[in-house]
Amino acid sequence: MDVWALLIIPIVTSVVIVFITRKWKNLSSYLSIAAVIACFFIVLPYLIEALGNPHMHGHEQAFTWLKVSGLHIKMGTFIDSLTVVMLCIVTFVGSLIHIYARGYMEGEEGYSRFFACLSFFIFAMLGIVLANNLIMIFIFWELVGLASYLLIGYYYQKPSAADAAKKAFLVNRIGDFGLILGIFVIYYATGSFNFGEIEHQVMAGHVEPWTMGLAALLLFCGAVGKSAQFPLHVWLPDAMEGPTPVSALIHAATMVAAGVYLLARISFLFYMAPPEAGIVVAYVGGLTALMAALMALAQSDIKKIIAYSTLSSLGYMVMSVGLGGTGPGMFYLMTHAFFKALLFLGAGSVIHACHTNSIWEMGKLYPKMKATGVTFILGSLAMMGVFPFAGFWSKDEILSTAFDSGHWLLYGAGTLTAFITGIFITKIVLLAFFGKKRYHGNPHESPPSMTIPLVVLSVFAVFAGLAGFPGLEPNFGSFIPSHGHHGPHHFNFLVAGISTLVVFAGILIGWKLYTGEAEPAHRLKAQYPCLYKVLENKFYFDHFYDGVLVAVIYNGIGKILNFIEVNIFINFLINGFAYNVRVVGRALRGTITGQLQHYALFMVSGVVVLVLIFLQYFV
Amino acid sequence: MEMNIGRLIPEFIMLGGAFVLLILEFFIPKGPRKWAGVFGICLSVVTAVVLSTQGYGSALSGLFIHDAISLYFKLLFLLVTALIFYMTILYEKNIENWRGEFYSLMLFCTVGFMFLASSSDFIGFYVSLELVAITLYILATFTREKSKSVEAGLKYIVTGALSSGFLLYGISFIYGTTGQTGFTEVAALVINNGGNGYLAIGLALTVLGLTFKVSGMPFHVWAPDIYEGSPTPITALLAAGSKAAGFVVIIRILLTALGSVRAEWLVLVSVISGASLIFGNLAAMPQKNIKRMIAYAGVGSAGYLFMAVAAASTLGTGALMYYLTTYVFAITGSFIALVIFYNSEGSYTIESLAGLARRSPLLAITIFIGFLSLAGVPPLGGFIAKFYIIAAAVQQGLWALAVIGVLMAVVAMYYFLIVIRSMYLRPAINTEKIRVDNYTRILLYGINAVTVLLGMYPGPLTDWVMAIADTLFV
Fold first, then answer.
1. How far apart are CA A248 and CA A343, in angstroms?
2. Half-sphere exposure of A12 (CA within 13 A, CB side)
3. Angle, to 10 degrees, between the axis of helix A596-618 and the axis of helix B147-178?
4. Which residue has the higher pLDDT, B136 or B196?
């Protein structure tokens, strides 16, 4: 029953903080930290078991949740090596970020509320990871969405934060719509929600390949929303309105990776489905990776740059899973959790010191903040994938998966992304920590509760990649059960060499651009005004959603006559969603005039119309 | 055919209680009547106990039937009555010129609900329906001093009379075709002889007339004004009780009496369902007043319930009962919270709820849970209910309805979240704390726990409702 404790401890902690200990800030934060650390210690024995035996037999336990004619749902948990990896990331990185947040959030209003939300998030996230069936995944999927909404909107007095929270929530609902449809399709095809039973049915070939492809792509919609893939990527950069520890935990290390985790969980579907399904996924991932990297180039907000690089990394993972490389994808997920959390926390430390997000108002912080500087640089090297840091090994596995698959476009996109990543990560490091002094006031190093998590994370950012060291047994590739055509990973020197070369080229270009006295951003703007503008405006996605689609529909005629079409469009129109439906609602409300005669007229004509419709069918 | 008056004991207990209150009113000076509320709650509990010991069977020469369905719905009505009596005790001071008839009339209304649940004959059903309707007309206009209440009552009467006209007209067509008024007799004739055009018209008009009670399209027009204008406990009674009573009759007529011609009424019920879903949910969005919003949301709920009827299966009918049960808890819980809020604030607008989370966390969380359950958010009871209904629709191949249902669940999220945002994220205009007494506190904790429990562990209740639904389709 210890598995259930993983869910019970955080939710009880959250409730206790909200109802009882809210007034005592420190106690609340200690409770929350203790809860997540306790979870980590519950997970530890499973990790040891999994390390001893990578092909561990899944632990499954379930109870009947509801049973009606033709519908029998069991709620339960399932633990195999894939689960263990995620559990460790969530509880371990979660613990560090909880500790960090104690320092970072010092003196903020709603300190206890913050920790209650964090514990609630841990509960919801562990629920997704532990679920042994799609219904439970869906429920907890929505709950992490709620946690994310609450935490992005933490500074709810700020309109931009409230808007960002709303945007994240609404965009995610669109993906979730696909997810729930996918769940229904799977149930329709296999008669079960349980992963084990579905896999059994699917692998036995009892399901039409076409149905599987449809189901896989619909479930992928859910992942597109949660993991912020093109075209639903727009919410993630805005989500940076939340406090930095939230960005690190939810919007970098864990929740956004839930989509990738879901894809890994159902990888057998992609294996048995027509190959096109996987290809679609891979191309969406590749496109997201490249596009996000390009957009990162023109940003000047330190958190936004890292957010775009997160998008780009998520694209990598999705691409890998789409190509059948579940192992490499999950490997990257793990290393990414470490170095991305590290980068965010480092950025948070810098923001904490300078009280600004703009990298143009930092500079020459290294002498002032040695601990943050060193760890941030280590994280950057891991992020760029420089040998022998963690990112190198995991990125290399993904690139060789793409290379071996023969999809040259994807391989090219991946390599190009690595190159661009080199440029903008170098840019952050140079502008924030070196070069000319641009900060105001007197920044100083953050307290130990913030720097210690940084140091611990940097150790993992450096060494975690060695889990995928070629020839090591158990290697990470064999650790995660994979249905792909790819057996144990072979180290490809050509791929590794090329990626190392392009990364160094990227660093070099970044170095040339962002050292020296002139303001390179203005120089670039002057040289390539159009390109820079496009990138700065994120390829005009938000403009497109906000301006073009919303405006066309809104000004279009027939608000009521074609409101079905309007509804369909609205689902594509993220920001216009609420607005347009409200317009229809107002029009409908207009039918209730308050005039009794109108009511009677409405009723009688309604009866006449319906009776006519009815008689058409009947007679 | 025997009279079997003994089977009507639970109804007689309630009726007796109503008369006792009515007579006592003559002898007792004006003033608060909280004891009458307590009396009503005790009476409901006693009746529920007596009801549970009653054997199944028919009475009054077949006009009245007591079976698993009527037992379930009567228990639900008694629960609603008890909760609404409690709400009325809290609300009492808002009714000027207080009269004890208020409680007495509510008991009459409950008796009407109970007879509706047991009716097995078109005539008996119509008489019970009018008993409910007339008491509700009076209750809706009870605060005569407020012009809004009078206006609401007048609209309610006129539209109600119109719908009764359609209903009676429909019933007369059915009688004209079959020569029978008993549900089982009609069913037997329809199975043997099949339907014809007259039966079809009768059927259509009857179903449409019934949509009035449950505020479904196209007879929903009264709902927003009446919900807003009535005293709040009556609004809750309309939302929770009247809807359930309407649907128990719809189940009996459509699934028992006319179950064999499902293919013919399917289109009609589907259109009503789809139209109610779309209209109710979209029109709820721009509302500023919570009671009006609930009225429109209630039209949407009627859409879901009609979808369950259209599915005409064990799963669908069981889901309908489950939905109504979760609906009762969500509505009564949030209305009790709203009444307490109204007592201190005198307003029902969404804006006035701003900052409620700081002023009274308990009231805010009750409305939060109640509304999210209405919206169908897991892991609350409302999610399970909506899920079953949509699953039943999919099972029967009603894809279009299922898709509309899912889409409208998203829309419902939106307008319920507006209220929640106002309570949790807006700064309070008036920061004074709102006090909640201890009984109410315990009751609200209980209602919230039930709503959560119905979502987290629906097993026992689903087993029960599905077993009941099974008896319809044997």
1. 8
2. 10
3. 20
4. B136
Residues found in chain B = 474
Residue B363 lies in a domain: yes
Answer for the pair A573, A553: CB distance below 8 angstroms, yes or no.
yes
pTM score? 0.64
Tens digit of pLDDT for each residue in A415-427? 999 988 988 888 8
Q: Model confidence over B164-189: pLDDT tens digits?
A: 999 999 999 989 888 888 888 888 88
Q: Is residue B342 part of a domain?
A: yes
Which residues contact residue A33 at a Cβ distance below 8 angstroms, ignoring those fewer than 6 apart?
Answer: A95, A98, A99, A102
SS3 (DSSP) at A487: coil
pLDDT at A431: 83
ipTM of the complex: 0.70
Q: Please give the Cα distance from B103 to B356 (Å, whole number).
A: 30
d(CA B321, CA B339): 27
Q: Rounded to an integer, what distance in angstroms lies between the CA atom of residue B323 and that of residue B274?
A: 17
B152 belongs to a structural domain: no
Q: How many CB atoms lie within 10 A of CB B35?
A: 13
* Structure confidence by residue, pLDDT tens digits, A468-484: 766 665 566 666 665 54
Helices (H) and strands (E) in chain B, counts: 20, 2
For residue A39, give the 3-state DSSP assignment. Answer: helix
Residues in B touching A177 (Cβ below 8 Å): 406, 410
Contact across the interface for A599 and B377, Cβ inside 8 Å: no
How many domains are there within chain B? 1
Under 8 Å between Cβ of A138 and A178: no
Residue B362 lies inside a defined structural domain of this protein: yes
Tokens of B42: 């005790």
Interchain CB contact of B168 with A (< 8 Å): no
**Site of tokens 């009776």:** A611
Chain A residues within an 8 Å CB radius of B162: 600, 603-604
B205 in contact with A, Cβ within 8 Å: yes
Query: What are the CA-CA distances from residue A608 to residues A602, A614, B194 (Å)?
Result: 10, 10, 24
Domain coverage including residue B363? 261-474
| Interface contact flag, B197 A586, Cβ < 8 Å | no
Q: State whether B264 and A618 contact (CB < 8 Å).
A: yes
B384 beta partners: none
Confirm if A39 and A9 have CB atoms less than 8 A apart: yes
Give the B window 373-412 contacts with A, CB below 8 Å.
377-379, 384, 388, 391, 394-395, 406-407, 410-411
Cross-strand pairs, A301: A358
| A588 to B279: CB separation less than 8 angstroms, yes or no | yes
Integer-rounded Cα Rg, in Å, for chain B is 21
B459 and A602 in contact by Cβ < 8 A?
Answer: no
In B364-447 the beta strands, taken as DSSP E runs, fall at none
DSSP string, B213-262: TTT-TTS-TTHHHHHHHS-HHHHHIIIIIIHHHHHHHHIIIIIIISGGGH
Instruction: Answer whether B410 sits within 8 Å of A162, measured CB to CB.
Output: no
Q: Of the spans A153-167, A599-613, B167-181, which averages the highest pLDDT?
A: B167-181
Omega prior to B32 cis, within 30 of 0: no
| pLDDT one-digit tens code per residue, B391-412 | 899 888 888 999 999 988 888 8
**Cβ–Cβ gap A610/B388 under 8 Å:** no
Distance CA A563, CA A299 (A): 39
User: In whole angstroms, how far apart are CA A339 and each of A371, A465, B161?
Assistant: 15, 11, 71
Retrieve residue B7's tokens.
């089977």
Q: Closest Cα partner for A334 from A253, A259, A258?
A: A253
Which residues make Cβ contacts (< 8 Å) with residue A254, sequence separation at least 6? Answer: A89, A90, A93, A94, A125, A337
Chain B residue nearest residue A172, CA to CA? B410
* Helix pair angle (A390-405, A408-433), 10° resolution: 160
CB atoms within 10 A of CB A112: 20
